[in-house]
Specification:
This protein has helices at 2-22, 30-44, 65-85, 87-107. The chain is mainly alpha-helical.
Length: 112
């Protein structure tokens, strides 16, 4: 469950960066709040729990197409900026991505 909690904190930070810097809002707007609530709900109900991969590598696509496009846009904008605003979280996220990729290769899963 700790991985999911960390992922929730990461997506929260990314949405805040996007809303503040890309959209120019001091507080989360209604669209970003809706996306954050949706993302937290999806992460909390992940059927893989602690053994989950990153969402982009998952075979089960639980995001609706609209929300998937929105979170993708947020991550494309906020991902590179995480190293500036939340450097420890960014490095931790990159390390977990590398670990997931390596674990998948050892288990015989294909990388996409």
């Amino acid at each position: 469950m700790a991985n999911i909690d960390r992922d929730i904190r990461t997506v929260t930070r990314m949405i805040h960066i996007y809303c503040r810097h890309k959209e120019g809002n001091a507080e989360l707007c209604s669209r970003c709040t809706e996306l954050l609530d949706y993302s937290v709900k999806r992460l909390s109900k992940c059927p893989f729990g602690a053994d989950r991969t990153s969402c982009r590598k998952c075979r089960v696509h639980c995001y609706s197409p609209d929300m998937k496009a929105r979170i993708k846009e947020v991550m494309r904008y906020a991902g590179p900026r995480m190293i500036i605003y939340h450097p420890v979280a960014a490095i931790r996220h990159l390390f977990s991505e590398i670990t997931i990729i390596n674990r998948g290769c050892r288990a015989g899963f294909r990388r996409h």
